[in-house]
Amino acid sequence: xxxxxxMAVVELKGDRAVExxxxxxxxxxNPIQILEECRQGMSIVGERFxxxxxxxxxxxxxxxxxxxxxxxxxxxxxxxxxxxxxxxVVLATLRGDxxxxxxxxxxxxxxxxxxxxxxxxxxxxxxxxxxKVKETGPEFVGxxxxxxxxxxxxxxxxxxxxxxGLRDKLKLMVGGGVTTPMVKEYVGADFQTTDAxxxxxxxxxAMRGK
Length: 210
Description:
alpha/beta
């Protein structure tokens, strides 16, 4: 795997990153591999943010670079997807949090692997999640958080899903840099991660087990 693309994302060289993505995919390279290299760059940016080496401005700029790369890759990723969705996933950043960087990365990676993703956006009321789950019947629901104020909304959504008789029919995931195993227990989730790819791997493993 080439590190050049990943480091272009890390060093916030947007024009260079986009140019590499376009050139490589047009040469016929695997779009999922290229996407993974972009994700690795984003992962390093996230680590530097957690350590205080990068700030929110760098985080948001890297997100724009990732978004630009995905825009180029999307037509090629669409061709590589299986004709039938591997599974359904509802994703949201819940009430109290307006950050969507991690959620958007997970959504892109899940779609690349063949999942049908319903992205509800940011600052989402838990009742909206319950409504969407009733409509779509997903195998997974994922909540992303960059700040701790969303934890109570996560727990509220989990309880509302249980009250509606939906909780046992799906796997509940929580993710984001501020989440921990303790947050998983507090929310009552099945899975927690700070790594987007781990979340995708969890979904794929669960579907293979069915």
